[in-house]
Amino acid sequence: MKVEIWSDVICPWCYIGKRRFEAALARFDHADEVEIVFRPYQLDPTASPVATPALDGYARKFGGPEQAIKITQHLTETAAADGLTLDFGRALRANTFDAHRLLWLAEQAGVQVPMKERLLQAYFVEGIDIGNLDELVRMAGEVGLDEAATRAALAAGAGGDAVRADLAEAAELGITAVPTFVFEGRWAVPGAQDPDTMLSVLNRVQERLVEQRS
C-alpha cells in the first residue's frame, strides 16, 4: 500500500498528523507493506528565504500577538497529547522550498521518512533555520546522506523541477490544506485525523486491495 502525505515542514498539524498516523500504523497488521512518501506543499510560497520569528508570522496572519499566543498555546497543548513538544517561541519561519528539495533527495536515497522527522524537529523544537543551506546539509548528514554530495546537489538546484511538479499536482488535486493523506493514489483523507480513524482507513484500503487481487 502506498500512502502519499502532502505536507509542509512548518505546519504544526502536519507534525501532529504524522505522529497520529504513526500511532495508527503501529496497530496495523500490514504495516510492513506500507510505503510512505512525503509530497511537498508550501503554506507560504512567498515567504522570504531570510528566517523570521514564527510568532511574528502568526500575529500578522491571525490578528495580532495575543491571537498568535492563543493559537500557538492551543497547538502546543494538542501536540503534547500526542507526545510532541512544540516551541513556537524558538521557531524560525523561512521559505520551505529548499527543505522540500532536500526531502526529494532523501527520497532517492531511501531516507525520506527520517529526513522529514529531522526537519520537523529542527523547526518546531530546536529553532533551526530550515531555509539555511548549511543547516540542511548538516541535518542531511545526520540521517545518512553524504554532506558534500548533498551540498553540491542543492547548490545545483537538484529536485527543483520535481518539487515544482508536485506542487502543481497538489493544486490539480485540489489540495488546499495539509496534511492530506492519499492512499494508493485514489483515496484522500484530509487533516490530522486521530489514530483510530486512520487505522480504520488503513484497514478499509487494505480490504479493497485484497478484493482487487482476488
Helix- and strand-based class? alpha+beta
Number of helices: 9
Oligomer: single chain
Could you give the order of strands across the largest sheet? 2-1-5-6
String of helices and strands: EHEEHHEHHHHHEEH
Mean pLDDT equals 96
Largest sheet: 4 strands, mixed
From the spread of the alpha carbons, the general shape counts as globular
Kindly report how far apart the N and C termini lie.
16 Å
Work out the number of β strands: 6
Measured on Cα atoms, how large is the radius of gyration? 17 Å
Give the helix/strand layout:
Layout: E1 2-7, H1 12-25, E2 35-40, E3 52-53, H2 54-62, H3 65-81, E4 92-93, H4 97-108, H5 112-126, H6 133-142, H7 147-155, H8 160-173, E5 180-183, E6 187-190, H9 195-213
Parallel strand pairs: 1-2
Antiparallel strand pairs: 1-5, 3-4, 5-6
Helix pairs in contact: 1-9, 2-3, 4-5, 6-7
Task: Tell me what you see in this structure.
By secondary structure, this protein is of the alpha+beta class. It has nine helices and six strands. The chain has helices at residues 12-25, 54-62, 65-81, 97-108, 112-126, 133-142, 147-155, 160-173, 195-213, and strands at residues 2-7, 35-40, 52-53, 92-93, 180-183, 187-190. It has a four-stranded mixed β-sheet with strand order 2-1-5-6, with helices on both faces. Strands 3-4 form a two-stranded antiparallel sheet. α2 crosses α3 (65-81). The chain is globular and about 55 Å long. The two termini are 16 Å apart. The mean pLDDT is 96.
